Amino acid sequence: MAIPSVPAGSDHPAPAEASPRFPELYAPGMPFASPELQSLAADGLLQRFHHRGYTLPGSPASPQLRARAAAGTIPASVRQRVVAGRLTAAWIYGCAGEPDRLALLVDAKRRVSSLRNTRGCTLHEVRLGPFDVVSIGGMMVSSPLRTALDIALHVDAERAIPALENLLARPEKDVRLRLLVLAVEATPRVPHKKAALEKLAALAPALVTGGPVDVEHSVDPADGTQDVAEVLGVTHLKSEL
């Protein structure tokens, strides 16, 4: 027997789509206090997802959920002014463990002084281009290639190499080692550039040990990976997540 439809203009409109019965992510104060969350986790009703957050047992982790977790630890007044980067971005992509402190990038065009008192994070003033940032789960995150470049340049080898391996091993992230080597080579006057190339050489010696890549036009390191792509004639960065 067919279910009759509700006629247009009826006093009984179709019911709205039901919202999830339980939230995906629980954080202190939303709605339980931290001791209550710990107790629920001890009873097996929740599982710890990150430092201050919990999910229902068996809930799959995703970049969107990790980004929401990171966003929840940042004051709302600050959230739209920063970009999750470096190992924090790698964690959001599922390519590194959760760092003890959030690494947040602040575009040099913005004022950083008002953000200095943001707790639980490290701020890095950088220049970001339009292809260096993507939006995931309500949080701005550095693109996979920009993330890999920053990790190679600024993170110690012990933590950088596993994260880089994971980023390179995931085709959906569209990070290619050859492009990453070219991006490092194309950024002059960058501290730790030699160390960055040594990290990449550990991943694929043949791409690095043959000597410096011949770059006809160098790029200011602060201009972002999209400018590296323009110099090298690469359209790679125009794709979006």
Structure characterization notes:
By secondary structure, the chain is an alpha+beta fold. The chain folds into two domains: 24-60, no CATH class; 68-238, no CATH class. Helix content is 35%, strand content 12%. The chain is built from ten helices and seven strands. It has helices at 34-42, 63-72, 76-79, 86-92, 144-154, 157-168, 177-185, 193-203, 205-208, 225-232; strands spanning 47-50, 53-55, 83-84, 102-107, 121-126, 133-136, 139-142. The strands form three sheets. It has a three-stranded mixed β-sheet. The protein has a two-stranded antiparallel ribbon with strand order 1-2. Strand 1 and strand 2 form a beta hairpin. Mean pLDDT is 76; it is low at 1-10, 13-20, 209-222 and 228-241.
Name its key features.
241 residues, alpha+beta, 3-stranded mixed β-sheet, two-stranded antiparallel sheet, 10 helices, globular, disordered C terminus
